[in-house]
Write a structure and sequence with these properties.
- The protein has helices at 43-54, 102-107, 115-121, 126-131, 136-201, 206-256, 262-301, 305-312, 317-328, 346-440, 451-486, 489-532, 584-601, 621-632, 644-647; strands at 10-16, 23-29, 31-36, 67-74, 77-86, 89-95, 109-110, 334-336, 343-345, 537-551, 554-568, 574-577, 610-613, 637-642, 655-657.
- The protein is α/β, with parallel strands linked by helices and 660 residues long.
- The chain has a domain at 1-126 and 608-659: P-loop containing nucleotide triphosphate hydrolases (Rossmann fold), CATH 3.40.50.300.
- A 5-stranded antiparallel sheet has the order 2-1-4-5-6, covered by helices on one side. A 5-stranded parallel sheet has the order 7-13-14-3-15, sandwiched between helices. Strands 10-11-12 form a 3-stranded antiparallel sheet.
- Strand 13 (610-613), helix 14 (621-632) and strand 14 form a beta-alpha-beta unit.
- The longest helix is centred in the middle third of the chain and has 95 residues, at 346-440.
Length: 660
C-alpha cells in the first residue's frame, strides 16, 4: 500500500469548555504534533476538541459549562462546532470540517474507545467494522435495479433480433400483397365495366331499375358492415386468447409466491422496536459509565473543577492544602474518598475504575450484538415487504386482466349477435334483389351473368381488396416499426455493456474492500512487527474465510475475517496462538494497525487530513516512537497524546504541546 504524500499545512485550534478544557488555543504544522503531559491534563479533551471541529460525534461539553465551542482554521478556511446544554442533553451546531463523520470516527480518530481498536481487543467482528461505512442494502438495491434494467434491455434486444429475422419475410409479404392488390384492382375494374354494360343494355323500366339499385346499394353496405364485424371478432378472439394466457401465468405465479402472514411483519417490527429500546438503554449506561470513569479519573488526579471549588470553600487554607495534597499527590498510596470522606488505597479506586472500564467494554459488546440482531431483523422485514409487494403486484394485475377478459367476452358476444343479425339481413336483401332483377330482366340470356351476380362479385372483390389493403398497411407499419426499433439497437447494446460494467463493480465492491483491507492489514502488520521487534511473534495476519450466516429467514454465504497469531519457540518451531494470549501491548498495536487498514482502504485521507492517537501507554517508549513515525507517512496531521517519558523518545523536531 503506497504512503500518502504530505503537503505542508498550518492549522490553529481554539476550544472553550470542551471535555475538561476551560479555554485554549493550539497552533500546529503538518506532521507529528505531540500532546505531552501526565494523565488528567486535558490531552484527551484537546483531541475531543479536534474531533468536534472536524465533525466527529464524540466531543463532550465541560461538566460545569452550559455551552462551548471548537474552532479550526485550516488552509484559510474556518470550521466551527458549538455545543449547548439543553436539559439533560447537549445539542451541537455549526459548520464543522466533515458533513458525515462516520469514516473519521471509525478509522481516523483512533482513541482508546475507537471501534476498530476495540474490535481486536474484544474479539468483535472485524469484517463488520471494515464494511460498516458501506451501505450494503443500497448496493443490493442498485444491483437489483440494474439487473432488472439489463434484463429488460436483453429482452428488447432479443425481440429486435427476432424482428430482424422477421424483416425479410415481412418485406416479401409486402411485395406479395402489393401484387395481389394490383390483380384485385384489375379484376374489380373488369367487373365494374361489366356492370356498366349490363345496366346500359337493361330494357327494364327506370322505376324497377332504381329499386334494384337501391337494394344492391343497401346490400353492399350490409356486406361491408359484416366484413368489419368479422374483422373485429377475429381481433377480439386474439386479444382474449392472449389475456387468458396471461391470467394463467399470473395464477401460476400467485401459487408460487410464499405465503404472506401479516403477523410476521408485526412481530418483526415489535422485536426491532424492543431491541432498539434495549440498545438505547445500553447506550445510556455506556454514556453514564464513560462519565463516571472520566469523573473519577479527574477526581483521582485532583484536576476536576468541582474539587477545586469545594476545597476553596473549606474553613482553613491549611486544611485545604493538606486535603488537596492528599488528593492530587501522584505518589500517595492512600487518598481521601470524595464520596465517604474516609482514607482508601489509591489502588482500590484504580481497580474500581478498571472494573468500570471492563463493564463498559461488556456493554459495548452487548450493544454490538444487539445491532447485529437488529440488522438481521431489518433484512427479514425487507424480505417480507418484498414478498408483500410481489403479492400486491400480481393481485392487481390479475384483477385487471380478469376484468378485461370479462369486458372482451361481453364484447365478443355482442359482435357475434351483430354478425348473425347482419348475415340474416344480407340473406333477405339478396332474395329481394334477386326477385327484382328477375322481374326486370326476363329477356336476359341464360349464359349471361346477372346484374345481381356482378354486383355480388364486385362487393366480394371490394371486401377482398379492402382486407388486402389493410394487411398491406399493417405489414408496412410493422416493417417501419422494426426499422425504427433497430435504430436503437446500438444504443441499447452500449447501455447493456455499461450496466454489465456497473454490476461487475457493484458485485465486486464488497469483495474488493474486504480483499484490500486484509492485504493492507497483513502488509502493515508485517512491517510494524519488524519495526517494533516483537521477537516472539512471527506473524499476525487476517485470513478471509467463507461461512454460512442467516439473513432473515434465508441462509447466505458470507466471508469472515479470521485473525491468526503465529509464534515460534526457542528451538525454531512455530505454532498458532490465540488473541487471548496476546499481551496488552501486542493487542493495542494490532488494533491500531487494523484501524490504519480501514483508514487506507476507505481512503479516509481524502476526507480528513487528521489522524488522532492516544492511550498508547501499553507500549514502551521506543515502540511508541517507532509506531507514531510509521503512522506519520499516511496523514497530513498526526496528533498523539503521550506521557512525558514516552514523548521524550520522539525526535525533538516534532511539535510539542505541553500546556493546554
Amino acid at each position: 500500500m503506497a504512503t500518502q504524500e504530505s503537503v505542508a499545512h498550518e492549522a490553529r485550534l481554539r476550544a472553550q469548555n470542551i471535555g475538561g478544557i476551560d479555554e485554549t488555543t493550539v497552533e500546529l504544522e503538518s506532521g507529528i504534533t505531540v500532546l505531552a503531559g501526565r494523565n488528567a491534563t486535558n490531552r484527551t479533551s484537546l483531541l475531543q476538541a479536534f474531533m468536534a471541529a472536524l465533525g466527529g460525534s464524540s466531543a463532550s461539553l465541560k461538566a460545569d459549562a452550559e455551552e462551548g465551542y471548537a474552532e479550526l482554521e485550516l488552509d484559510d478556511q474556518t470550521y466551527t462546532r458549538t455545543l449547548k446544554r439543553t436539559g439533560n442533553t447537549v445539542v451541537t451546531d455549526g459548520e464543522p470540517y466533515l458533513d458525515d463523520p462516520e469514516l473519521a470516527d471509525l478509522y481516523a480518530f483512533l482513541l482508546e474507545s475507537n471501534p476498530a481498536r476495540r474490535a481486536v481487543t474484544t474479539e468483535d467482528d472485524l469484517r463488520e467494522i471494515i464494511l460498516r461505512p458501506v451501505d450494503t442494502d443500497e448496493i443490493e438495491r442498485e444491483i437489483s435495479r440494474l439487473t432488472d434494467e439489463k434484463n429488460e434491455i436483453s429482452n428488447e434486444l432479443d425481440r429486435l433480433d427476432s424482428l430482424k429475422n422477421d424483416l425479410p419475410s415481412l418485406e416479401q409479404q409486402r411485395t406479395d400483397l402489393e401484387g395481389k392488390i394490383e390483380d384485385k384492382r384489375d379484376e374489380l375494374e373488369a367487373v365494374k365495366a361489366a356492370i356498366e354494360e349490363a345496366e346500359a343494355n337493361a330494357d327494364t323500366q327506370q322505376e324497377g331499375q332504381d329499386e334494384l339499385e337501391e337494394k344492391l346499394s343497401e346490400l353492399r353496405e350490409r356486406r361491408s358492415a359484416l366484413e368489419d364485424v368479422r374483422f373485429d371478432l377475429e381481433t377480439e378472439r386474439e386479444s382474449l386468447s392472449a389475456l387468458r394466457e396471461e391470467r394463467d401465468d399470473l395464477e401460476a405465479e400467485q401459487e408460487d409466491l410464499p405465503a404472506l402472514n401479516s403477523l410476521d411483519r408485526e412481530e418483526v417490527d415489535a422485536e426491532i422496536d424492543r431491541l432498539q429500546r434495549q440498545s438505547q438503554s445500553i447506550d445510556g449506561v455506556i454514556s453514564q459509565l464513560q462519565s463516571i470513569v472520566q469523573f473519577n479519573e479527574e477526581m483521582l488526579e485532583g484536576s476536576h473543577p468541582e474539587i477545586r471549588q469545594l476545597l476553596a470553600n473549606d474553613d482553613t487554607e491549611s486544611t485545604d492544602q493538606a486535603i488537596t495534597d492528599q488528593l492530587v499527590d501522584d505518589g500517595a498510596e492512600t487518598v481521601r474518598c470524595w464520596t465517604c470522606g474516609s482514607q482508601v488505597q489509591r489502588s482500590e479506586i484504580e481497580a474500581t475504575i478498571d472494573r468500570l472500564r471492563e463493564h463498559q467494554e461488556t456493554k459495548l459488546s452487548e450493544r454490538d450484538d444487539l445491532e447485529s440482531q437488529i440488522e438481521s431483523l431489518r433484512s427479514e422485514r425487507r424480505e417480507i415487504d418484498q414478498t408483500r409487494q410481489r403479492h400486491e403486484r400480481v393481485d392487481r394485475r390479475l384483477d385487471s386482466v380478469t376484468d378485461e377478459i370479462e369486458q372482451r367476452e361481453a364484447r365478443l358476444d355482442d359482435l357475434t349477435d351483430r354478425r348473425e343479425e347482419l348475415e340474416s339481413e344480407i340473406d333477405d336483401l339478396e332474395t329481394e334483389a334477386a326477385e327484382l332483377e328477375a322481374e326486370a330482366d326476363d329477356d336476359t340470356e341464360d349464359d349471361e351473368e346477372s346484374l345481381l351476380e356482378l354486383n355480388r362479385r364486385a362487393n366480394e372483390l371490394e371486401f377482398s381488396l379492402g382486407r388486402l389493403e389493410r394487411d398491406l398497411e399493417t405489414t408496412t407499419d410493422d416493417i417501419e416499426d422494426i426499422e425504427s426499433a433497430l435504430e436503437d439497437e446500438d444504443q441499447l447494446e452500449q447501455r447493456r455493456d455499461e450496466i454489465r460494467d456497473e454490476l461487475e463493480e457493484l458485485r465486486t465492491r464488497i469483495d474488493r474492500i474486504e480483499r484490500e483491507a486484509v492485504e493492507s492489514f497483513n502488509e502493515h502488520m508485517d512491517a510494524v512487527l519488524e519495526v517494533l521487534e516483537y521477537r516472539n511473534i512471527d506473524r499476525i495476519w487476517i485470513e478471509r474465510v467463507g461461512k454460512t450466516v442467516r439473513e432473515g429467514r434465508r441462509k447466505v454465504e458470507q466471508t469472515a475475517f479470521d485473525l491468526h497469531i503465529v509464534r515460534s519457540t526457542a528451538d525454531g518451531s512455530t505454532y498458532e496462538d490465540t488473541i487471548d494470549h496476546l499481551s496488552e501491548s501486542e493487542r493495542e498495536v494490532t488494533g491500531l494497525i487494523f484501524g490504519l487498514a480501514g483508514y487506507l482502504v476507505h481512503e479516509v485521507y481524502e476526507e480528513v487530513p487528521f489522524m488522532l492517537l492516544d492511550s498508547l501507554e501499553a507500549l514502551d517508549s521506543n515502540r511508541i516512537a517507532a509506531l507514531v513515525e510509521y503512522f506519520e507517512s499516511h496523514t497530513d496531521f498526526l496528533v498523539v497524546a503521550l506521557l512525558p517519558e514516552d514523548a521524550a523518545a520522539l525526535d525533538d523536531e516534532y511539535d510539542r504541546v505541553t500546556e493546554i
